[in-house]
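Re: flavin-adenine dinucleotide structure - here you go.
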Amino acid sequence: MDLNTIGEVTIARTRTDLTNPQPGDAVIAGGTWLLSERQDHLRRLVDITTLGWEPVTITDAGIDLAATCTIETISKLGGELPAEWTAAPLFHQCATALLASFKIWKTATIGGNVSLSFPAGAMISLVTALDGTVTVWRPDGTDYTAHIVDFVTGAATNVLAPGDVLRSIALPAGALRGRTAFRKIALSPLGRSGAVIIGRLDRPDDGGGFALAVTGSTTKPLQLRFPGLPTTADLTDALGGVPDDLWHYDAHGAPDWRKAVSSVLAHEILAELS
Ligand SMILES: Cc1cc2nc3c(=O)[nH]c(=O)nc-3n(C[C@H](O)[C@H](O)[C@H](O)COP(=O)(O)OP(=O)(O)OC[C@H]3O[C@@H](n4cnc5c(N)ncnc54)[C@H](O)[C@@H]3O)c2cc1C
């Protein structure tokens, strides 16, 4: 839709174009959410897709995803990774957990998805499952990093301060070498996610730990960690320890339903990875 309060659009070419933010500014990446509803409080858009960031950088240490990397690129990435990165299927699985048409996939970005910080943020599920760390540019030229579970603070809230720009997301090689299992559930076959639960069992030489990402069903992403595969009782206990007010409530599922299905899916994942 037209945003008719916007008086100026800045096409960012260098980091300097991101300094001096004003009230009424918003970064625009894919624009799939920003242009989908009224934004009467906004006066200026700063387009970051013109900064020329390399979408995907692969090194021995892992993967660095630019914030402007599209969901489409991420969905295909799993097919292009080294064979020993056994978590590769997660990229497509998480991309398909985003309720969106191929048109959205082509322009929506991982940075936009993570910055919105919706519980149903499928890229948040991916980054949580793979132990991702977010790098943020402050307008004063400094940077900071945050683990994804600390970056997202609640439903549609996060640590970004006005003028901060999410620059990139790092996924470590150790997590990419893990064996993973993915489950998503929604109230209708093509519905927005009510729960996205992902398990990851690391190789013994990467510590052999088990991490369960609980997303979609909770207001913020959770990572339940165990030194190895937990018993079903330990898994039940850990899920039982999630505070009641973290189970999310919206039109896509009631908290008690989300809590119950998260437990069922987590136990399926444990059985699959055992
Ligand atoms: C049909 C449809 C279905 C959708 N389904 C889902 C869904 O299932 N789950 C879900 O979570 N979302 C969904 N969305 C919302 C949204 O499209 C996606 O989250 C998408 O990934 C947002 O990315 P974008 O690049 O288009 O963000 P934009 O629309 O460009 O920006 C979104 C917000 O993030 C800010 N932003 C963007 N990039 C940055 C950055 N690098 N640093 C700081 N702030 C930034 C913008 O200022 C804006 O506030 C859907 C949208 C549509 C239209």
